[in-house]
C-alpha cells in the first residue's frame, strides 16, 4: 500500500464512527486525486479507442484526425488505480488489417511525475508517446503492433 495513504486509514478510524468509516475511506477527503487522461490523435487516419479499469469499461470511441479523447476519474484509497486503453486503426481506409496497441495509460503505483494529474498521450504513426509538459517534450513509450 502507498505509504503516504496508509496513515489516513487510522485517521479515519479515530475521527469517524464505524458507520461513516467506509465513506471516509472511500471519499476524496484526504487522498483521492483527480486524474485526466487525454489521448491525442496525431495519426493521419481516425483511431478507435476503448479504455478500461478493473471496474469500468468506458466503451468504444472514435477519435477523428487531430482530435482528442479525454476521460477523468478519482484514484482509489488503496493506491491501486489502473487504467489501460486499446487503440486500433486502419493505416489506409480500405486496408483489411488494423494496427493496434493495448497499454497502461495510468497506474497509481507506477505513473511518471508528469502523469500525476494530467496524462497526455499522443498517437503518432511512429508509436505512442507520453507528453511531459514540464519539459515540453514527448517520450515514446509504446509501439504499434503491425
Ligand atoms: C514546445 O516545443 C515545440 C517544439 O517541439 C515548440 O514548437 C513549442 O513552442 C514549445 N512550447 C513551449 C511552451 O515552449
UniProtKB/TrEMBL annotation:
Keywords from UniProt, A to Z, are: Secreted, Self-incompatibility, Signal
Q: Which intervals of the chain form a coiled coil? A: none
The listed locations are:
Secreted
Any one of the GO CC terms: extracellular region
GO biological process entries: rejection of self pollen
Is Secreted one of the keywords UniProt gives this record? yes
In the record, which residues are listed under signal peptide? 1-24
Superkingdom of source = Eukaryota
Stated family? Belongs to the plant self-incompatibility (S1) protein family.
The protein, known as = S-protein homolog
**Species, as recorded:** Solanum pinnatisectum
